[in-house]
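> forwarded from #structure-qc
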């Protein structure tokens, strides 16, 4: 299994990092204001494109491009074209062309479902974690009605020119085996035209056994 495959699957099996959960909570007033900022950012972003780099705990990296369009659509395309992770509004599909296989899940039963909704509800579903940097907001988000679907730890940078004054910098995923995968974004572009065709894919061809 190649590195890109492992990284893509990490998005589907996420648990909260213990160090973040153990950290003291920010002051209530500051937390409320920053949660409102994140809510405003997510509500203002109807589409986004970006480049990404994913790095595992051993320092191995894979690159690709990201396209997002609310409600419920996202595409992670890895360099080389062998691996895709695509949500079409209702289903999240992982496609591995290298082995000729795909798997599909109900989008709302994954951590991405809440954040890709038309108006993500953070109150009761998310809380801030100390970042150690006043320019950064770190958010731990989990659907309280579906805690078994996992947790996302997202990092936002304060940026006056970005929607809601924030820019999504990236996130960290930690799976059930405590394996950490970090995603960093660059060249973020908000509310740009994204074709509906971005959320379709060619069916993988099953490889014949020799």
């Amino acid at each position: 299994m190649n590195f890109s495959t492992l990284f893509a699957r990490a998005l589907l099996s996420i648990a909260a990092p213990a160090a973040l959960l153990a950290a003291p909570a920010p002051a209530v007033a500051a937390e409320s204001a920053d949660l409102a900022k994140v809510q405003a950012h997510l509500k203002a972003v109807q589409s986004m494109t970006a480049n990404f780099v994913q790095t595992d705990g051993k320092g191995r990296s894979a690159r690709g491009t990201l396209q997002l369009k609310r409600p419920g659509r996202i595409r992670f395309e890895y360099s080389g074209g062998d691996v895709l992770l695509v949500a079409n509004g209702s289903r999240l599909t992982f496609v591995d062309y290298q082995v000729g296989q795909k798997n599909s899940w109900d989008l709302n039963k994954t951590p991405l479902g809440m954040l890709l909704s038309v108006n993500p509800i953070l109150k009761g579903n998310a809380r801030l974690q100390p970042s150690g940097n006043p320019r950064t907001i770190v958010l731990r988000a989990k659907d309280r009605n579906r805690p078994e679907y996992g947790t996302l730890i997202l990092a936002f940078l304060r940026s006056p020119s970005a929607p809601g004054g924030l820019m999504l910098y990236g996130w960290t995923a930690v799976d059930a085996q405590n394996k950490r995968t970090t995603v960093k974004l660059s060249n973020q572009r908000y509310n740009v035209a994204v074709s509906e065709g971005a959320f379709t894919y060619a069916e993988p061809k099953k490889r014949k056994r020799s």
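QC bot note: Confidence is low (pLDDT under 50) at residues 12-24. The chain has four helices and eleven strands.
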